[in-house]
Amino acid sequence: MILPPNFFPDKKEIIDFAFEAYGLKSFADLGGVWAVDGAYTFYTIDTYKTEKAVLVDTNFSDNFIQKSSNEKKLKSINGNFGNESVAQKVGKVDAIFLFDVLLHQVNPNWNDILKMYSGQTKCFIIYNQQWIEPGKTIRLLDLGKEEYFKNVPHTPDHPTYKSLFNKMYEINEEHNKIWRDVHNVWQWGITDNDLVDTMKELGFEKKFYKNCGRIGNLPNFENHSFVFKKNK
């Protein structure tokens, strides 16, 4: 299998750890198309004897559509994985992949997403941009415009972020939510403690953790990887 240039070894590492340690046979990759065209889904299908694979995203790239059309094991769902109706379509799977998406989830919030899927999986495989400042999880937009753009990898003139603070309470017609609640922009600074505590409350134990390093020159974020397994 030819891996794309932006296929992160740290994400491969947690997939390999979980599938080899726990004999997983099925998974759902939530939001797995953007920037990688479903690469982690196809890697997992090709590497492990999966019986069921699901990928959910709101936008499918041409490359993903072409490749997925020949993959009989894969069920593609075009929709927002934060919707309960979409979660129902995903059904029960051994593992849920959440790569680079948890910090974007609002209404329902990131912790509500975890709760929504906790009853239909036994393993969460997570790679997320984590807030490393002391204290609790924060909503980045509440920092105000100046501090917000100090803490995200985008400038105020980026097409998606341009005028964000002027239109926060206007409806984004694509997602039928106010701009303040759409997943297209950075939303949360999630701390490790809050993520681990949330998973404990849902009955999951941390089995793998790695600090994967800083994100560019952002002062308050690092990439962290996790595997959580449901307690018996």
Concise description?
By secondary structure, this protein is of the alpha/beta class. It is built from seven helices and eleven strands.
Structure commentary:
The protein is globular, with a radius of gyration of 17 Å. It is an alpha/beta fold. It starts with 8 loop residues before the first helix and ends with a strand. The chain has helices at about 10-20, 40-45, 60-70, 85-90, 110-120, 145-150, 190-200, and strands spanning about 25-30, 50-55, 75-80, 95-100, 125-130, 140, 170, 175-180, 190, 205-215, 220-230. The chain has seven helices and eleven strands. The strands form three sheets. Strands 3-2-1-4-5-11-10 form a seven-stranded mixed β-sheet, with helices on both faces. Strands 6-9 form a two-stranded antiparallel sheet. A two-stranded antiparallel sheet has the order 7-8.
Defining traits:
232 residues, alpha/beta, Rossmann fold, 7-stranded mixed β-sheet, two-stranded antiparallel ribbon, 7 helices, 27% helix, globular
SSE order and pairing:
Blueprint: H1 9-22, E1 26-30, H2 39-47, E2 52-57, H3 62-68, E3 74-78, H4 84-90, E4 95-99, H5 110-118, E5 123-131, E6 138-139, H6 145-150, E7 171-172, E8 177-178, E9 188-189, H7 192-201, E10 204-214, E11 221-230
